[in-house]
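Protein 1 of 2
SEQ + STRUCT:
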Amino acid sequence: MSYTETDVSSASAAMNKYCEELDGEVAAALAVVGLSAERAHKEAEIRDDMIRVAHRSGASLRQLAKVSGLGRKTVTAIVEAGRTQH
């Protein structure tokens, strides 16, 4: 496997962001956890946007809850939050 200079720079930046005072295995683990949390947050934002699109297109709250694995109250809150943003 090969890495570009950009890959190495990104990894170094993550290490500095999440664990600048630590070294070794703990630092690497913290960097992975931090990057995973960032990715999960971004994916949740995308999921929420798609829930709102699907609802505007006619999907029911029950259908959305079923396919997303979320409760109806959570799906309702996501849909309602989209209404207050616009």
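Protein 2 of 2
SEQ + STRUCT:
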Amino acid sequence: MEVLIIVTILLYMLSTAGYFAYLFFQEDYLHRTGYLFVLAGFICHTLSIVYNGITSGGFPVRSLHETLSIAGWAVAGFFLVFQSRFKLKVLGIYAAPLIALIMFAVAQVPNTPSQEQSIFKNFWLISHVVTVFIGNAAFALACGIGILYLLQERAIKTKNPGFFFRRLPSLDMLDGTGYTCIIVGFTLLTFGLISGFIYAKTIWGRFWGWDPKEVWSGITWLFYAALLHERLNVGWRGRRAAIMAIIGFAILLFTFLGVNFLLTGHHKPFTTF
């Protein structure tokens, strides 16, 4: 239903405007406005996904159009939950534009679904996609928090408090919330990979086939595993952890999109499976 997509994009864009107004004027009502627009956009977005699922008779990840839509939905949903828990108000200046950008891309990509329909009803495939996408959303927010951390750290180190210094939270808060996102993302990615292995076994008769998507998913998992290991055992915090969160998200983006454009394999083009 294209009307719902258009309304969703409009609401996310209004949220972006509200959060940027909050960044400049620091009025709580502007933050609440931005949050409510994300919530309204998320509701419309959910209705659009449900409608597509009903009309297609399966989980709507049959094309790049639908896959990107699920990605934007996951980021919006995770942001809403994260924001209600941690009250990191300024994060909206990163999350809202990101969600709006993803949905703008959705509107530009034609919806040409795969002809195979039965696989989109597989329980393990649905579990794989949902957990991976929500995990990716957590990593996306960790990247944004890492960027905010570097901005705040620079303002402190230069001893020249500027625009961001008074508008960003403490380094400890940014470091702690970013770490939380990494833990959640890694946990969900792990469950997503496990369900993906089971799905591969049921469809192709083996758990692992060295497909480029599988290889890069494994690389992504190993990267975040190493990041968590070094934080727990070596004490990677602050600037180093923020930079690694940004690099990790770049690897994730290549796994999600770059592999499909540059490499070939048995996974369906422009989807996660």
